[in-house]
Design a protein that fits this description.
This protein has 232 residues and is an alpha/beta fold. It has a single domain, classed as 3-Layer(aba) Sandwich (Rossmann fold). It is globular.
Length: 232
């Protein structure tokens, strides 16, 4: 079963005192001690970001590792990735992430991993990247559409409630047909796909939600059923 867990925001890097989404991700591996690999390409392999990943996941029942493209652990990246149960993509610059992945062939390796049942997860850039298109601030001058990997159909907008310009910009881009219809997620929301369909939507915050956003004569926003994972 191919699985992708796309976070609008949250997890160890945004909610260090609220582990609900990251624990949910670990649980999906259905193993007592899953192997989870962090790929922080979008942050330029930030040492601080990598450190925060280990600070959290070293305390959990799992085997954490990370893949740096600036200091790769091996020449055989495919074998390295395919041994993992979960691959977790960090946030940052989506355009740079996609460019580096293509140069290293990591985009194709991750598709192979997905096809073989490795769970793909991530927030912000690590959510956008799986869709055909996303809303990004990668270009440094406001929010714009970006073409992505296309593992999942449609477009994606993270941080829907977390950044004031996200919702109105997504609506404008869909209305002007600069980006196709898709799904938006508040910070603290994880959209869990099995194959290419939404299986479950969970949140670490009681009022956080996900939405279908489309255009039918006007922009239509439909709230999707979201399950609060409960107080930790």
């Amino acid at each position: 079963m191919r699985q992708i867990i796309a976070l609008g925001g949250g997890g160890f890097s945004m909610e260090p005192d609220n582990p609900l989404l990251d624990l949910y991700i670990l649980k999906q591996a259905k193993k007592a001690v899953p192997e989870i690999c962090f790929i922080p390409t979008a942050s330029g392999d930030s040492d601080n970001y990598i450190g925060r990943f280990y600070d959290f996941f070293n305390e959990q029942d799992c085997i954490p590792s990370h893949l740096s493209l600036f200091a790769p652990p091996t020449r055989d990246l495919e074998s390295f990735i395919l041994k993992k149960d979960i691959v977790y993509i960090g946030g940052g610059n989506t355009k740079n992430l996609l460019a580096l992945w293509k140069e290293w062939g990591l985009d194709e390796i991750l598709r192979i991993a997905w096809d073989q049942g490795v769970i793909l997860a991530g927030l912000s850039a690590g959510s956008i990247c799986w869709f055909e298109e996303g809303v990004t601030d990668s270009y440094g001058d406001g929010l714009e559409p970006i073409k992505c990997l296309g593992f999942l159909k449609g477009s994606n907008c993270p941080h829907y409630d977390g950044e004031i310009e996200r919702r109105p910009t997504y609506h404008k881009l869909i209305e002007s047909k600069k980006i196709q219809s898709g799904v938006a997620a508040d910070d603290g929301v994880a959209i869990h796909y099995m194959e290419n369909k939404i299986s479950r939507i969970v949140s670490s915050r009681p009022n956080a939600r996900a939405y279908n956003v489309s255009f039918e004569k006007k922009v239509k926003e439909t709230e999707l059923q979201t399950e609060f994972l409960g107080a930790y």
